[in-house]
Amino acid sequence: MDECTTSSGVTKNDIPTNEEAVNNLLGELGDSLKISNGADQKVDGEEEDEEFKDAVDQLLPDAEDSPKSQSDDYIDEEKLKEKEAAYSEEDLKRLKEEANDFKLKGNQCFKIGEYKESALAYTEGLRICPLMYNQERAILYSNRAAAKMKIDLKESAIEDCSNAIQHDPNYVKAVMRRAQLYEQSEKLDEALADYQRVLEIDPSNKEASGATRRLPHEINERNEKMKTEMLGKLKDLGNMVLKPFGLSTNNFQMVQDPNTGGYSISFNQNPR
To answer: What is the enclosing helix (H) or strand (E) of 256?
Structure first.
């Protein structure tokens, strides 16, 4: 089997699953994604990106699109705990080791630029890694987020980072990765909060330190721009309403109270 083959090397009896259909899908994906040395495998192209998005959607469906029971990533935790209760300690460790093998495959694919195959390998690892192993699942989620970042699946990558943080709140790589994704998505307030969280965990982090000094200014600039645009639209609307009365917004003057920050409006019959 090639290094980056994502089809599982274990049997159905070895892996606790929810739906046979998901297993069949993974098998088909694994067969179609085998590569030889990675040299002749395309990593770009709109059609392949859509195929990958469709595959991820089927493996990790949104709650409103399909039942949670169809994906181990969204499985009810109580159900998963019940299943794990039926396994021996040896079985749980074996599943963790198999999940680690998928993680290593994902890492290898990532190193050679096969990001889609990397993400699918991490997905298979998440499917079999017992929920009790929080750190292992956090790493799989965070690594998969890194792979998705490379193929511009920002929103899905943010979700993976959030899942990683849920499993390990102090996992600084996942928090940092989510902060970067938020900033790239122009969600500056969320990005600043994550960078601040990074500094709580690791005060020596230079990137987070720089971001916490830089982002407040960018947020203020954004807010001022939004306020100017909003006031401009309100002025246009006001002029449209006042025009039939021979008035315009120039007849009204807004004065800001320096103490409260609030505004008062005065009327001028003959504006200059």
So the answer is: strand 252-256
Q: Which two tokens stand for residue 99?
A: 């999940």
Among 153, 188, 215, the domain-final residue is 153
pLDDT tens for residues 176-226?
Answer: 999 999 999 999 999 999 999 999 999 999 999 999 999 999 998 988 887
Q: Rounded to an integer, what distance in angstroms lies between the CA atom of residue 92 and that of residue 73?
A: 17
What residues have CB less than 8 Å from 64, skipping those under 6 apart?
none
Distance between CA atoms of residues 54 and 5, nearest Å: 19
Residue 266, H or E segment:
strand 263-267
> What's the structural domain count of the chain?
2
Cα-Cα-Cα-Cα dihedral sign, residues 176, 52, 166, 92: negative
C-alpha 20: how far from its chain's center? Answer: 27
Same domain, 229 and 138: no
Locate 175 and state its tokens.
């928090």
Q: Report which of 206, 52, 60, 47 is spatially closest to residue 123, judged by C-alpha positions.
A: 60
pLDDT digits (tens, 9 = 90+) for 20-77: 443 444 444 444 433 333 333 333 333 444 554 444 444 443 434 443 444 334 535 5
